[in-house]
Here is the input.
Amino acid sequence: MTLTIAGEIDALRAAMIGSVFLPADEGYDDARTVWNGDIDRFPAVIARCESAADVAASINFARHNSLEISVRGGGHNVWGAAVGTGGMMIHLGGLNAVTVDPVARRVRVGGGAMLGDMDAATQAHGLATTAGTVSHTGVGGLTLGGGFGWLGHRHGLAIDNLVSAEVVTASGQILRASQQDHPELFWALRGGGGNFGVVTEFEFRLHEVGPLIDFGLFFFDLGHGAEALRLGRELAAAASRDVTVVMGAITAPPAPFVPEQYHFQPGFAVLVAGFGNGDEHTRIAARVRESLPPLFDFVEPMPYLELQQLLDEANAWGMRCYEKALYLDELTDDAIATFTQRASSNCGPLSHALIIPFDGAYQDVDDHETAWGGSRSGYGIFIIGLATTPELLDAERSWVRSLWGALMPYANGIGAYVNTLAQFEDDRVRASYGTVKYERLAQTKAVYDPENIFHRNANIKPASPSASR
Ligand SMILES: Cc1cc2nc3c(=O)[nH]c(=O)nc-3n(C[C@H](O)[C@H](O)[C@H](O)COP(=O)(O)OP(=O)(O)OC[C@H]3O[C@@H](n4cnc5c(N)ncnc54)[C@H](O)[C@@H]3O)c2cc1C
Here is the structure.
């Protein structure tokens, strides 16, 4: 390892605005930590970048010293893509500026910003764009993999709202990619993950949202799970784009809005978020209460920012996690029966499984227009095992695998949303993109990262030079 060459580190430090951490430095442990508490790895060097030039200097340093590169946006990837042992972590935490242009309805967001940073800045102008459901997730990884959230039914994926991105490529070049400039790179960035370079700034289109939205949580006991999910399916299919319906198996949290006798009770929930004038939301709440009275419900207007933080605590930093996902073309009664029978057995109180319908604005963009490896129709099922100790995580891992296995006969293949792969098995990455997209991504990879230095991700192998375009 050439890192004993103090002069090289000094030169990197001198070249950067941001900081460089070695294992003995104060700040190193904090910087190497990622969201999944099950990941404990030790990079040889951490470059905490504050500019695109810092990122370029870090890439050049890593290449020169043959260090494996990992790129850390928000650190949420469950596999721990953002951190390796013995390599160089390019930490984007210092690149978190958010600049809103309320007239043009655009936001520019640093490549290491959290969703919460972006939402807070855009909501100050009554605006928002599609982001995920947990505010301490990174804009970077979420967007590059696709990015769905409460606003998806109305405004599509995060990538559908991406206008341009500033990228530092494997050669250290700083480019701006958009429909006009480097269009093939722009296509690949919209779903192809961190394979093509380090994005130092994203530019998104914004929409009027909130500041108040309508929220509803309807909770059903285990015995009414199948009925609840069939009702949720019906509500989702009938909802306008102003309303998002999500269903799942959850444990009632010890939250103020949950009657005390139901704290920690396992069951099934239908969650509804309304972004329109409220009438439709009111009708939905009445319909649920009449047709299948829940054990308890919580129906209130709430600030959009609160909705965006609603699941933060349930997904707190340091939790140990294992996750698997799949897509269903249809949520049949049989699939619901299997889900409800298996989701509630042998599952710890922190784990949960969500069913997310993909329709509405998700379908406004043709599949070939972006590199999104997911489905723009049907349902995504996300099975998330969470625990506080390694031993407990073993049990949750078994639960995740067993529920996933039971549902696979209903799936439309072995592919999944690449951002939810807890292991980047090569065949699942290929299956997620499909052959045509994977080959196009591989061609683009060969242009922008021919040596595959950005490989700690759902990796696209560069096409060989002889492969035809
Ligand atoms: C609690 C939780 C909730 C989630 N909720 C949602 C959700 O609602 N919707 C959704 O779509 N997904 C969700 N996800 C999945 C999430 O999209 C992925 O975990 C994503 O990878 C997180 O991005 P990150 O920047 O935080 O992660 P990181 O681990 O930092 O990065 C993930 C990958 O992206 C690369 N990367 C990150 N930033 C950049 C950048 N600026 N330039 C180049 N490469 C970069 C990294 O190298 C790595 O390969 C959730 C995950 C968790 C753990």
User: Anything to note?
Assistant: The two ends are 39 Å apart (CA to CA).
